[in-house]
Amino acid sequence: MAKLDEKISGIYQDVLKRNPGETEFHQAVLEVLESLGPVVVKHPQYLERKIIERICEPERQIIFRVPWQDDKGKVHINRGFRVEFNSSLGPYKGGLRFHPSVYLGIIKFLGFEQIFKNSLTGMPIGGGKGGSDFDPKGKSDDEVMRFCQSFMTELYRHLGEHTDVPAGDIGVGGREIGYMFGQYKRITNRYEPGVLTGKGLTWGGSLVRTEATGYGATFFIDEALKVRKDSFDGKVCTVSGSGNVAIYTIEKIHQLGGKCVACSDSNGVIYDEKGLDLELIKQLKEVERRRIEDYAATHKHAKYIAKGNIWEIPCQVAMPSATQNEINGKDAATLVKNGCIAVGEGANMPTTPEGVKVFLDAKIAYGPGKAANAGGVATSALEMQQNAGRDSWTFEYTEKKLQDIMCNIHNNCYETSEEYGAPGNYVLGANICGFIKVANAMVAHGLI
Ligand code: NDP
Ligand code: 2IT
Predict the structure, then answer these.
(1) Residue nearest to atom 39 of ligand 1 (CA)
(2) Is the minimum distance from the CB of 150 to ligand 2 under 6 angstroms?
(3) Which residue, by CA, sits nearest to atom 7 of ligand 1?
(4) Of ligand 1's atoms, which has the minimum distance to the CA of residue 263?
(5) Which of 55, 186, 328, 380 is least surrounded by CB atoms within 10 angstroms?
(6) Which residues are catalytic?
């Protein structure tokens, strides 16, 4: 990977010093800063106006106590976060993650990535992220509801359709958005669909939002394959995770003629040589909230590999769709050795810096998360558009808009990579293209 430009290196050292212990945030910042050397040569005013320093410092960080009671009446205290990172292109926009591993460093890495991702969508949205170290696993519906109500009892005062608009992420889907929307409405006495996205279809949600991230990541890689005069048709694919993003990645790959043979959860991997039975996965994960291991109970020919490593299964296209740093340098080398020609990141920052280097050196079609998974937040912006116009669009119309957005993101990243002398390097393309738009808006808005 490129070395840090001398002028930028000092900025990075400052980020390390000012944000001790936040390793995921450091990683996300370094990856963007490594792309910016040639940009500050072309645009010296970014250094003069200290744009990079300002972009690395969230505009506002909110940390709060979330007390709730379980079904037995026992009291629990979790920590809630909302990091409002950058509002130069629009209201803060980004998901909420509920997972026991959540701490400030995770929310900041996600919020930082979100700034550039949202810029790439071409929609008027700034960057933010939030969440909690609450673990929804094994909790009853009522417990999840009480937690969401308590979380929103603090968060509501920071939200607004022109201020900050959260959505889902790991551990937050339609159920949680519903409970949070209900509590927002109750506290404020206002029916304001514009304060959250990922809503239910009968109360302000948009068709295609559920499918959007997975579909979008697949559209992105489809475009990258087209550049190489190739397609998904007949390709063997693996998709990590078995949540929202993974499920709709599998669905779109199958629609485009590919065959997904493996998916996973944090306990293990399912390998089905015949191609995954998506209806079964949806029933297990979306309806019954069970573990992926149960797939093999119905489909005896499939193999469940407890604690397995999905990246050891040979594939031509890999779509990491679970969590950060799930592909290390060794996994990346295994994928390339086994004939993988494309990697599309449905998850945020799923590849470690060592892994990214392997993919770039091998010159495979590698779509980094902030470009490849931008379809989710882009469709959230389409939901906001429909809410503002009190409108609702058809599935076909909305999906076509998503596809056009992903095609544009792909082309803009590709053209930027060419302009900066590294054609096909989507990491460079996405970082530079996402950054410049935000930087120009910040210059225009003055020193704030
Ligand atoms: P879900 O909660 O629906 O699913 C998450 C999946 O990833 C589950 O299968 C889960 O397994 C697995 N997973 C989560 N954390 C870990 C971990 N620490 N180790 C191993 N496996 C893990 O979340 P989403 O599908 O919404 O999100 C997946 C990824 O996509 C995340 O990186 C998210 O930031 C990103 N993303 C999501 C968007 C969206 O619109 N939802 C938009 C853009 C990006 P288990 O059940 O065992 O925990
Ligand atoms: O990482 C992401 O882009 C998301 N979790 C979706 C954010 C959103 O506001 O739809």
Answers:
(1) 169
(2) no
(3) 322
(4) 9
(5) 186
(6) 129
Query: What is the residue with the minimal CA distance to atom 28 of ligand 1?
Result: 322
Please tell me if the CB atom of residue 205 comes closer than 6 angstroms to any atom of ligand 2.
Answer: no
pLDDT tens sequence across 233-274? 999 999 999 999 999 999 999 999 999 999 999 999 999 999
Long-range contacts of 207-210 (CB under 8 A, 24+ apart): 207/392, 207/393, 207/394, 207/395, 207/398, 208/379, 208/382, 208/395, 208/398, 208/399, 208/402, 209/376, 209/379, 209/380, 209/382, 209/383, 210/174, 210/244, 210/248
Whether residue 94 has its Cβ less than 6 Å from ligand 2: yes
User: Is the pTM here over 0.90, yes or no?
Assistant: yes
Sequential pLDDT tens for the chain (448 residues): 457 888 899 999 999 999 999 999 999 999 999 999 999 999 999 999 999 999 999 999 999 999 999 999 999 999 999 999 999 999 999 999 999 999 999 999 999 999 999 999 999 999 999 999 999 999 999 999 999 999 999 999 999 999 999 999 999 999 999 999 999 999 999 999 999 999 999 999 999 999 999 999 999 999 999 999 999 999 999 999 999 999 999 999 999 999 999 999 999 999 999 999 999 999 999 999 999 999 999 999 999 999 999 999 999 999 999 999 999 999 999 999 999 999 999 999 999 999 999 999 999 999 999 999 999 999 999 999 999 999 999 999 999 999 999 999 999 999 999 999 999 999 999 999 999 999 999 999 999 9
Closest to 366 (Cα-Cα) out of 434, 417, 424, 435: 424
CA dist 238 and 92 (Å) reads: 33
Q: Decide whether any atom of ligand 2 lies within 6 Å of the 97 Cβ.
A: no
Which ligand lies nearest to the CA atom of residue 382 in the structure? Answer: 2
Token code pair at residue 130:
């939030």
Tell me the C-alpha distance between 223 and 208, whole Å. Answer: 20
> Of all atoms in ligand 1, which is nearest to the CA of residue 374?
43
How far is the centre of ligand 2, averaged over its atoms, from the C-alpha of 310 (Å)?
25
Domains by residue range for the chain, with CATH: 6-55 (no CATH), 60-192 (3.40.50.10860), 212-367 (3.40.50.720)
Beta bridge partners of 75: 69
Q: Are 263 and 292 within 8 A, CB to CB? A: yes
Give the number of other CB atoms < 10 A from CB of residue 255.
11
Q: Where are the beta strands (DSSP E) in 268-385?
A: 268-271, 303-306, 317-319, 342-344, 365-367
403 contacts 219 by C-beta, under 8 angstroms: yes
For atom 10 of ligand 2, which residue has the closest CA?
377
Say which residues have a Cβ less than 8 Å from residue 341's Cβ, sequence separation at least 6: 228, 230, 316, 317, 364, 365
